[in-house]
Design a protein that fits this description.
This protein is α/β, with parallel strands linked by helices. It contains 19 helices and 10 strands. The strands form 2 sheets. The protein has a 6-stranded mixed beta sheet. The protein has a 4-stranded antiparallel beta sheet with strand order 2-1-4-5, with no helix packed on it. Helix 6 (136-151) runs antiparallel to helix 7 and helix 9 (211-263) packs antiparallel against helix 10 (269-310). The longest helix has 53 residues, at 211-263. It is elongated. The relative contact order is 0.08.
Length: 579
């Protein structure tokens, strides 16, 4: 827990004031039963109305101080716990943002969402409970015990028999509860992952009429969570009856034994009334402590899951980079005998002995069958993953020697899966350059063939995209993503099958823009259609992670059998549909 001290330090005053005010409230609770016993013994027994009014006034004063202390304690406890977990959540999110693709692959998205929300919430709840009860419950327990022994030590011995029994029971409950809460959080992860997947892909679900399948899958995950939640909550449910039974049995024993003492003349009625209240306070404090321990067990399961994220070793950093200040200035890309596989140990290699060079300003086409390693190859340039063997160099320098920021600032990338964010079109485009002027935005949007359809919207560039850009077509989304990348003015531009949803005429205009507006930018284009890359300076043909052909369109038609097969099959298909 020492790692969490930095989150408490800024709010140390709240962490101190809250419990101190709770102690003030406890002192009042300890005083009130004794004051009540004095009223009964000295005021009621002697019919002394003045004494009753005087003590009643002081009881009201104590109650008012208790109320103010209770409100203040609750406020500062809430402030401390909420601010603590807010800072923790911020750092947890920042940590996830630092993750490499490999780190993210180790956690499901639903699991990370649960850790950022539900697990943090559990920590907040138990911290608030601890701040309100950590001193209050022990203070009440010790104070009530002292007062009980002062009033009648023989009668107080009864509670000393009950406390160890309750301690053993609470310990057993804690031991059983901890692993169950951990399993419950894991099941919540699974449910959240399913919900996110279903909502993200709701259009696919509807188009394949798979609503019933998804409802059944959700039902199973929901019932699994329900069963495990009930299994964990049985422990919580068991705690209250155990504590109430102990309280009732102890109170009954005290009243029976104390009644005999009153009959024998060795105890006053007011003292027994006060003593019974102290017994209730002792048992209530034990009950509060048991709830703190129980909630702590659940929170510790959440803390463990938070720590898994916070202590995950980020496997792709620039800490050892020797040229951190260097920026990409030319855009020359070189692969030297590169092999790559996913997973911590490289796994099965998806790229094998890749070597080629892209000179500044060149257009490099990459073509190959699905699963041939095209996307994996281009992801190595901005270090989304690191090579397993070999080197990737940009401007003659190993990409691992750059700072990640400077390297990625020099690379514009339009991913295979086009992603737009909630907000306006203008806000999305400014992801490429937050300082871009409206004139620059329109120039690059026009270059990506996006300005025309954007200005046709009623609100133009201020049109709200909705979550994920739901109100634009696939082709429009691709063009907006290209415009966003162009606004970076990168030295290296990577297009990962980024014009697949665009018609051939529009694609031709985009390629023409690349030749003119991006003359000095190295362009690496992954495509399924040979027509998208046939004018490239160099075309790389991949098959099962290996380069099986490299050269211009004419050279490959003359020398590469696989390229010939792709070219003629596509031309035959185009002729059939009349293109």
């Amino acid at each position: 827990m020492k790692d969490y001290g930095k989150y408490a330090k800024p709010y140390l005053s709240a962490f101190i004031i809250g419990p101190c005010l709770m102690i003030t409230e406890v002192v009042g609770e300890i005083m009130l039963p004794k004051m009540m016993s004095l009223i009964i013994n000295n005021g009621v027994a002697n019919h002394n109305q003045g004494y009753i009014l005087q003590m009643g006034f002081w009881m009201i004063c104590v109650a008012c101080v208790m109320a103010v202390s209770g409100i203040g304690g609750a406020y500062f406890s809430a402030k401390a716990s909420i601010c603590f977990t807010s800072d923790l959540r911020k750092d947890l999110f920042a940590r996830v943002q630092q993750f490499s693709f490999g780190n993210i692959d180790d956690f499901s998205t639903g699991s990370l969402v649960t850790r950022l929300t539900n697990d943090i919430q559990q920590v907040q709840m138990v911290m608030m409970m601890i701040l309100r009860l950590a001193l209050r419950a022990p203070g009440m327990l010790i104070g009530a015990l002292i007062m009980a022994f002062i009033m009648n030590y023989r009668l107080a011995m009864i509670i000393l028999v009950v406390i160890p029994v309750l301690g053993v029971l609470i310990g057993a409950i804690m031991f059983t509860a901890y692993p169950r809460f951990g399993i419950m959080q894991t099941k919540l992860d699974k449910l959240n992952s399913g919900i996110q997947e279903a909502l993200t892909n709701v259009r696919v679900i509807k188009s394949f009429v798979r609503e019933d399948f998804e409802k059944e899958r959700f039902r199973l995950a929901n019932e699994d969570l329900q069963a495990n939640s009930l299994r964990a909550m049985k422990i919580v449910i068991l705690t209250m009856p155990v504590m109430m039974m102990a309280m009732n049995v102890t109170t009954l024993a005290v009243v029976w034994y104390g009644g005999n003492l009153i009959i024998g003349g060795s105890m006053q009625v007011g003292d027994l009334t006060a003593f019974t209240t102290y017994i209730v306070q002792i048992l209530m404090s034990l009950m509060m402590l048991s709830m703190v321990f129980l909630q702590s067990a659940r929170a510790m399961a959440s803390v463990k899951r938070i720590n898994e994220v916070m202590r995950t070793k980020i496997d792709l950093t620039d800490e050892d980079a020797e040229q951190r200040e260097r920026k990409v200035t030319e855009g020359r890309v070189e692969f030297r005998d590169v092999s790559f596989g996913y997973g911590k140990k490289g796994g099965d290699e998806v790229l094998k002995h890749i070597s080629f060079t892209a000179e500044p300003g060149q257009v490099i086409g990459i073509i190959g069958a699905t699963g041939s390693g095209k996307t994996s190859l281009v992801q190595l340039i901005p270090r989304l993953y690191d090579v397993t063997f070999g080197q990737v160099l940009v401007d003659g320098v190993d990409v691992r020697e750059y700072s990640l920021k400077n390297l990625r600032d020099g690379v514009g990338m339009v991913l295979q899966k086009n992603v737009l964010f909630s907000g306006t079109i203008l806000e999305n485009l400014r992801w490429g350059n937050e300082k871009a002027t409206m004139e620059e935005i329109r120039v690059f949007a026009d270059a990506a063939q996006a300005d025309g359809f954007v200005t046709s919207f009623a609100k133009g560039y201020d049109t709200d995209m909705g979550q994920g850009g739901i109100n634009v077509s696939g082709g429009q989304k691709q063009r907006l993503c290209i415009a966003r990348a162009l606004l970076k003015k990168p030295k290296i531009l990577i297009l990962d099958d980024s014009t697949s949803a665009v018609d051939t005429a529009t694609e031709a205009k985009i390629r023409e823009c690349f030749r003119t507006a991006l003359e000095n930018t190295t362009k690496i284009i992954i495509a399924q259609r040979i027509g998208s890359v046939e004018e490239a300076d160099k075309i790389i043909v991949l098959d099962e992670g290996r380069i099986i052909g490299i050269g211009s369109h004419k050279e490959l038609l003359a020398s590469c059998e696989a390229y010939q097969e792709i070219y003629y099959s596509q031309r035959e298909r185009d002729e059939e549909v009349g293109i």
